[in-house]
Specification:
Rossmann fold; elongated; six-stranded parallel beta sheet; binds uridine-5'-diphosphate-xylopyranose; 2 domains; about 45% helix
């Protein structure tokens, strides 16, 4: 049972469908702000874990807050929508939209959630909740797919029997809770003022006294803003990685300095210009593919989007090719890969650069040992059984002919020359994330190849 003590004025309770990064973080945050929240998660194991106060994802601050809101009775996780709409003022759809077989997003979870909402609406007499699509979907989805499914399953019409809007989410993994607590912007797409106004009022009450910049537009614009944001971030990364390839070919090039110079131009800005093994994770690659499929469906040239993906793929292969050149052949060589997560601060390995690098190393005959402070269990499901999982960075380096840094975990930046030299059979490093200061290592006789820095003859 919920305690009704600290509810946000105007909204009695909220339902969130899907307990992924977005849905779970949103649910915990809302519950912590006094909004009674029901999170509907079809994976019973995940829902059970949440109910026991255990976070199924590694996110700073989330486990503590989750425990608190469960203890206080403000958050409940269920596997079925059931009668939860009876008391709900707002229903957020936060289910996944993974890449489908045709390269575009698989919208089946969004469709299923819409159908369930429609059926639940048909079974209740309660009036007009606001349905908010937070899942990342192609332009047109909310109005042309979600709305008709809810309308036909509920027998109600949009704008009367329920309200509908799009409200994309921009949180980053690793800082998901903080990004939800202090978003830099709110984008709302709606056809009817009632829908957008209700959500604006909800967020105003939630974030007050802060005033979050809010853009209200059409559903398609809002949907496109999300895809375009992630594609633009990916574009910046692939651009700097292209420049990093040029730097490597120069006698005195360093992409870190070039990026700094670029970033000083306020029209460009310094963020997302870190060269390395490229972007991974559950959003940038997927959303880029979704935008590519949508672009193609509109008969618009996709070559820019393809180039972003091609450069990203090439960064991963180039590092293995360099490893092969350095060692002559990779067959039978021990390679230590430091870092599995697609970025620090998360245990997520989806589309992580490390996974492609490791598979490519194995394909070329290397023996691979790996380390990650938190992502090992998730990586086990993706990697070949021959991979050795080390319990520490030092163990991972033990007896290695070469080490590759694939994720910029802070602990790898503090590896000392002494540790590296005593552990490795051959003190040779490829810094795929530019975390090491090569100078003291080189002075200690360790060879360091940094992505984006010129290097002799390799
Ligand atoms: C991204 C968006 O930033 C976020 O707004 C959206 O809601 C979800 O997708 P996330 O996937 O958590 O967030 O990671 P992000 O911090 O954007 O990094 C994505 C990838 O790009 C990581 O693999 C990271 O290592 C890489 N990256 C990032 C670079 O290679 N260089 C950079 O300069 C920045």
């Amino acid at each position: 049972m919920f305690s009704a003590s600290k509810m946000l004025p105007g909204v009695r309770s909220v339902v969130v469908i899907g307990a992924g990064y977005v849905g779970l973080t949103l649910s915990v945050f809302l519950a912590s702000r006094g909004v009674r929240t029901v999170c509907v998660e079809r994976d019973a194991e995940r829902a059970g874990k949440i109910m026991r106060g255990h976070s199924p994802i590694h996110e700073e601050g989330l486990p503590e807050l989750l425990k608190k809101v469960i203890r206080e009775g403000m958050l409940e996780a269920r596997t079925e929508l059931g009668d939860t709409l009876e008391g709900a003022d707002i229903v957020f759809i936060t289910v996944g939209t993974p890449t489908g077989s045709n390269g575009g997003p698989d919208l089946s979870q969004v469709e299923e959630a819409s159908r369930q909402i429609g059926e639940a609406l048909a079974a209740t007499k309660r009036g007009s909740p606001l349905i908010v699509v937070k899942s990342t979907v192609p332009p047109g989805t909310t109005w042309n797919i979600v709305r008709p499914i809810i309308e036909s399953a509920s027998g109600r019409s949009c704008g009367e029997g329920f309200h509908l809007c799009v409200n994309p989410e921009f949180l980053r993994e690793g800082s998901a809770l903080q990004d939800t607590i202090t978003p830099d912007r709110i984008v709302i797409g709606a056809k009817h003022g009632v829908a957008s106004e209700k959500l604006v009022r909800f967020y105003e009450a939630l974030y007050q006294p802060a005033k979050i910049p809010t853009l209200i537009t059409t559903p398609s614009n809002a949907e496109l803003i999300k895809l375009a944001t992630n594609a633009f971030l990916a574009l910046k990364i692939s651009f700097i990685n292209l420049i990093s390839q040029l730097c490597e070919s120069l006698e005195d090039g360093d992409v870190g300095v070039v990026a700094e110079g670029l970033g000083l131009d306020p029209r460009i800005g310094p963020l997302f210009l870190r060269a390395g093994l490229g972007f991974g994770g559950s959003c940038l690659p997927k959303d880029l593919r979704a935008l590519k499929a949508f672009t193609s469906s509109r008969g618009v040239d996709i070559s820019l989007l393809e180039a972003i993906l091609n450069i990203n793929r090439a960064q991963r292969i180039r590092v293995v090719e360099r490893a092969e050149r350095l060692l002559g052949s990779l067959a039978g060589k021990r390679v230590a890969v430091l870092g599995l997560a697609f970025k620090p601060g998360t245990d997520d390995v989806r589309e992580a650069a490390s996974i492609d690098v490791i598979r490519e190393l194995l394909a070329r005959g290397a023996e691979v040992s790996v380390h990650d402070p938190v992502a090992t269990e998730n990586a086990r499901n993706l990697l070949d059984k021959t991979v050795h999982y080390a319990s520490s960075a030092e163990d991972c380096l033990d007896g290695a002919d070469l080490a590759i840094i694939a994720t910029e975990w802070p602990e790898y930046a503090s590896l000392t020359p002494n540790k590296i030299k005593t552990k490795m059979r051959n003190p040779l490093l490829i810094d795929g994330r530019r975390v090491l200061n090569p100078q003291p290592l080189e002075e200690a006789g360790i060879k360091v190849y940094t992505v984006g820095r010129s290097s002799e003859a390799v």
